[in-house]
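User: Hi! I'm working on a homework problem where we have to compare a predicted structure to a textbook description. Could you give me the structure for the chain below?
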Amino acid sequence: MKIFLLIVSYIVLDVISSLIYVGLLLLLFITMKKVFNMNEEKWSAFFKYRNGKGLYSIMVFPYLLMISIMYPVTMFGFDLINFDYRVLGYSRDYVTNAHFIFKITKA
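Assistant: Happy to help. Predicted structure tokens:
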């Protein structure tokens, strides 16, 4: 039963974190469009800046914000199901996130 709760909690937390990330990314794009009065030429120039570094930089900020939001939520979720090895739940997200950020900065 505990393994089932662990798997379900991972799935729920992944869905929540994905929705938060997409929402923050879209909010950032909408804000940039309104503030800088972006048109097609400005977006193209921004995304092609330094061979795509502009796009990577705009995608990392909401990702880091999502990680900082999801950390307490993950801690609460694993405390809620009272899982014995809840440290695994905390570390799994942050090891994969660190790998993703390192991969982006190397590109």
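For your comparison, note the following. The two ends are 42 Å apart (CA to CA). The longest helix spans residues 2-36. Good luck with the assignment!
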